[in-house]
Amino acid sequence: MRHLLDTKELDRARALRILDVAEDMAATQQREVRKLPTLRGKTVVNLFFEDSTRTRISFEAAAKRLSADVINFSAKGSSVSKGESLQDTAQTLQAMGADAVVIRHGASGAPQTLATSGWISAGVVNAGDGTHAHPTQALLDAFTVRKRFFGDDSRGRDLAGLRVTIVGDILHSRVARSNVWLLATLGAEVTLVAPPTLVPQDVSAWPVRVRYDLDEAIADGPDALMMLRIQLERMNAAYFPTEREYSRTWGLDAERLAALPADSIVLHPGPMNRGMEISAAAADSPRSTVLEQVANGVSVRMAVLYLLLAGERTDAEEDGR
User: Following CA atoms 58, 60, 66, 69 in sequence, which dihedral angle do they give, to the nearest 10 degrees?
Assistant: First the structure.
């Protein structure tokens, strides 16, 4: 694997390879000594142009548990805040000998530019770009769903036959976009539920069903319900009347939680707006996988870094170096 930029580029075999390696990584995290020597001597740079807590810490933990050297680079307080370009930053990292760059950027397409520009020879992992993609979040979500439904028998299995419903701010969500393509590749049936104003215009090309009524979607009996945060910071217009109205119509409250099938699960990529898109009862219930998603994120990101820096390469990947 040369880069990981978008789940749309992953076929079923490659997606399952990442999930299966993540299973191996998760097993190592149950040991008394969780650190592996696998990436000793490699340097991983976390290049974050947007604020992040979970994703940055998760990538840092993943790299350190593989014994890589980690450099955390925040745009705030750096030369970027003084006007330095992405190209100049990349060339600085190249000169420092970075082997992998984990990048989060507010502009959609920035990781693709970094990976294909020739400015840097390091492998590039997209940790979220604009409203475009967040591939490792989708992978950890799929890993969590697979683990919940298939347990220790999950290795090599896709998500065929499972129904996943994604609810909320689809328009601004890179998590939703990455999940749609990955879940569809793994065979899941995906439904989107949102106010009409928060559904992208180009969604007709996506492998999904679109609904606008959450109660009807719940009545269909989804296996997994993923609640998305309303991204007020990306909104420059009124997409719904009030936060209270949104919560009443599209929020997962205790009543809707009780209406879900007995074995269905609730996911949330975080951070959560408790009381808006998800109630405290739903967030803290046994159905909730929120904390599992955080733990699984480290294993999945360990797998991605391992495959990027130490895993076997195909001939085509070698030719494209």
Answer: 170
Whether the bond between 111 and the residue before it is cis, its omega within 30 degrees of 0, is no
Q: Dump pLDDT digits (tens) for 96-125.
A: 999 999 999 999 999 999 999 999 999 999
Q: At what angle do helices 12-28 and 174-185 cross, to 10 degrees?
A: 100
* Dihedral Cα 202, 234, 141, 191, nearest 10 deg: -40
Using pLDDT thresholds of 50, 70 and 90, give the confidence band for residue 85.
confident
**Number of structural domains found in the chain:** 2
Task: Identify whether 320 is part of a domain.
Answer: no
CA distance 157 to 143: 10
Shared domain check, 228 and 179:
yes
The pLDDT mean for the chain works out to: 91
Q: Are residues 27 and 110 in the same domain?
A: yes
> Strands 163-167 and 224-227, how do they pair?
parallel
pLDDT band of residue 217 (cuts 50, 70, 90) is very high
Shared domain check, 25 and 152: no
Q: Are residues 158 and 127 in the same domain?
A: no
Question: Same domain, yes or no, for 182 and 39?
Answer: no
Domain containing residue 105: 7-134+295-315
In angstroms, the CA 104 to CA 51 distance is 9
CB 50 within 8 A of CB 231: no
Residue 280 sits in the same domain as residue 302? no
Burial class for 201, CB neighbours closer than 10 Å (0-12, 13-18, 19+): exposed
> What span, in angstroms and rounded, lies between the C-alpha atoms of 296 and 61?
12
Beta bridge partners of 220: none
